[in-house]
Amino acid sequence: MNEEFPLKAIRCEAAAIPKESGKASLPLPAKMARLNAESPLSSGLIKHIVDIVEIAKQAKWPYPKTFQALADAQVISYEVSWEDGYQCVYKTPAGDITEAPLEGFIQPKISSEFSEAKAKQALYIHQHGETTYLEWLQQMADAGVSQYNVRMEQRSVTYYNTNKIQSITEIVPTI
Question: Which end of the chain, N or C, is less packed with Cβ atoms under 10 Å?
Answer without folding.
Answer: N
